Amino acid sequence: MSSARDEEASRHEEFEKGQVPPSHQLGSNRFWGMYAGEHAAGTELMIGPLFLLHGVGLLDIIYGLLFGNFLAVLSWRYLCAPIATQARYTLYRHLEFIAGSQLVRFYNLANGVLFCFLAGAMITVSATAIGIPFSMTMPSFSDFYPSTLDYVLVVLGVGLVISLVASFGYEALARFANVAAPWMVLVFLACGIIAFTQLGVSSWSEMQQVWNESILVAQAGEQNASMGFWTVVLFAWFCNAAMHIGMSDLSVFRFAKKPSYGWATSAGMYVGHYMAWIAAALMLAVQIKHTGDTTPLPGPMAERVAGLAGIMLVVVAGWTTANPTIYRAGLAFQAIFPNSSRVTITLVAGSIATFAGLFPAMAFELLGFVGLYGTILAPMGGILFFDWYVVRRSQPEELEKRSYVGACSPAVLMAWFVPVVVALYFIFGHDVTTWYFPLPCWLASGLLYVYLYSFFPSKRVAS
Amino acid sequence: MKTRLLLLRFFACLGLLLTAGPAFLYLGGQISLEFVKQSMLIGMVLWFGAITLSYYLQRVTKKMP
């Protein structure tokens, strides 16, 4: 996901507790390059094909992604970047002022666990490519549990290597991820073009016909679209909800000279979340056309269109996503156990991710998972947003002057928990799609926070 | 030193060109899929090789007195 930003952090001072001074602010080119590379990752190889399996129409994908990604860019530009360039704190430091140190630790725990599951999905993705030379029996789309011993062994091997690298050689891998980013973008593009050519279509109507036939095969003769235009829009908008409306990227944009650098996220959205998703979906369509196999396994799909370079794409994309994710999960856990060594805690995070990777369903249910990820984490961004504009009146000095002195602010705790618990009830109790919830939860948390804050500001804040 | 770096950058760019370029020719029906796959492989080796060497060269030069 974001190896570039971590290299950026290692190259420059971190300013974890303080504001980024003008001397350390960066130009716009860094942000354009970073976002373009960061969003051409292993997850893209899973998400595109899942659209096809959910029976989404081709036009709904093309226009839905165009619009949804634009909304995501606007969220970065107008919600996240302005606060980042005024306050210039990391998300965690900013939250400490508002929520209290213990609540931030709890937020870290939630973040760390969700990171581990995301990394687990990437380990599965990598295993589907590593397993090809070993003639590994691939999991099928309906598998929840690991079905064969060779799959388990490959996942354990991949997970072990990724965890060790994340623990000991992380910086070298961050540099490698930066180098790999332009190559990965071009391989995605090439795979998309090759797959399109292999579909053998010469007109738009033929393309739609082939697409619809692929859906028919994937859905065993039926054509039930569980996602339409608006769900694609919502998914594209909120698959990175934790980053933009959830304000996680405050940590990135605090280095930006101007809030207009938020437009740089369009490079990531339209390269990774548009071109790469459509390319990956076309790769599955080719697989279905040639073999009738509807299992969205990135390794075999990429090998079919690009040979060894395709396998390398899956491995590199999966590893460069999983490694920083495990590393960040380790950092999040370390905030909870500050006396433990970073190597040990990263290995623990890697073990959890590897265990999650054993379950193929983690990767096959990625669409729902990223929605859940946004639903749980994004509301904290809503609280921060409303606090910044309503309580602090956009004054950075107000954060330190009136920071929360206790361990856990009840206003923030309730404002975060209540909407999230309601959302989780609908998601797990009534099977409602996860992508519907990040925005309502974000708004509800923000408004609830402002309401609750009015009850105890004088008692709960220090001047 | 500058010439070597320039040469390495040329090979890196050539690597990227070989990675994505042949796909367009395949789209036009001018080359076979096998050729595209081989070209992408060579492009990958060129890109990573040239970039790694250029990093190494820059590091060695910085260490020189």
Structure commentary:
The complex is a heterodimer of chains A (463) and B (65). Chain A is built from 20 helices and no strands. Chain A is an all-alpha fold. In chain A, helix 8 (170-198) packs antiparallel against helix 13 (298-336) and helix 13 runs antiparallel to helix 14 (342-357). The longest helix of chain A has 39 residues, at 298-336. Chain A is globular. The two termini of chain A are 39 Å apart. The model of chain A has no long low-confidence stretch (mean pLDDT 88). Chain B is mostly helical and 65 residues long. Helices cover 88% and strands 0% of the residues of chain B. The longest helix of chain B is centred in the C-terminal third of the chain and has 31 residues, at 33-63. Chain B is elongated and about 55 Å long. The mean pLDDT of chain B is 91. Classes of the chains: A mainly alpha (463), B mainly alpha (65). Chain A binds chain B through residues 175, 179-180, 182-183, 186-187, 189-191, 193-194, 196-198, 306-310, 312, and chain B through 15-16, 19-20, 22-24, 26-27, 33, 36-38, 40-41, 43-44, 47-48, 51-52, 55.
Number of helices of chain B: 2
The level of helicity of chain A is over 70%
Largest interface: A-B, 21 and 22 residues
Judged by helices, strands and strand pairing, the structural class of chain B is mainly alpha
Please state the oligomeric state of the protein chains shown.
heterodimer
Label the overall shape of chain B: elongated
Rg of chain A, please?
A: 22 Å
Q: Enumerate the spans of chain B where pLDDT stays under 50 for 5 or more consecutive residues.
A: none
* SSE string of chain A: HHHHHHHHHHHHHHHHHHHH
Q: Uncertain spans of chain A, ≥5 residues at pLDDT below 50?
A: none
Could you give a short account of the major beta sheet of chain B?
A: none
Helix residue percentage of chain B: over 70%
Count every beta strand of chain B, where a strand is a DSSP E run of 2 or more residues.
0
Rg of chain B, nearest Å:
15 Å
Beta-strand share of residues of chain B: under 5%
Question: Which structural category fits the helices and strands of chain A?
Answer: mainly alpha
Overall outline of chain A: globular
Order of helices and strands of chain B: HH
Distance between the termini of chain A: 39 Å
Please state roughly what percent of the residues of chain A sit in beta strands, choosing from under 5%, 5-15%, 15-25%, 25-35%, 35-45% or over 45%.
under 5%
